[in-house]
Design brief:
Elements lengths: L1 E5 L2 E3 L5 E8 L7 E7 L6 E6 L6 E3 L7 E6 L4 E6 L8 E8 L13 E2 L3 E5 L2
Parallel strand pairs: 2-11
Antiparallel strand pairs: 1-3, 3-8, 4-5, 4-9, 5-6, 7-8, 9-10, 9-11
Length: 123
């Protein structure tokens, strides 16, 4: 499975941004999908995840209420709508996929990773 994340950029605090991740080479509808991020000098951390059918969604406390994850199995894509962005959201955002979403918040359970897309929130 190959994952291609895109949609990052430079935005101001309070702005919105939508990240997309396109998957290829596998059966997308059988994969749990997640988003992680890594800020400079920090470890990679969980942001959000969504179950195979989209019925289950998970969020880090730091983004709950501001970010929304969704997926379109017909387009082999997962999205992360980010609203009310803050400077502390600045990071490289990674798309990930899991054959089995054992624990959506733990990166070791993910089998595939994209290359990351930079999100910078600054005035």
């Amino acid at each position: 499975v190959q994952l291609q994340a895109y949609g990052g950029g430079l935005v101001q605090p309070g702005d919105s941004l939508r990240l997309s991740c396109a998957a290829s080479g596998g059966t997308f509808s059988s994969l749990g999908m997640g988003w992680f991020r890594q800020a400079p000098g920090k470890e990679r951390e969980f942001v959000s995840a969504i179950s195979r059918g989209g019925g289950g969604t998970y969020y880090a406390d730091t983004v709950k209420g501001r970010f929304t994850i969704s997926r379109d199995n017909a387009k082999n894509s997962v999205y992360l709508q980010m609203n009310s962005l803050k400077p502390e959201d600045t990071a490289v955002y990674y798309c990930s996929a899991a054959e089995g979403l054992v624990n959506p918040k733990i990166e070791v359970y993910y089998d595939y990773w994209g290359q990351g897309t930079q999100v910078t929130v600054s005035s």
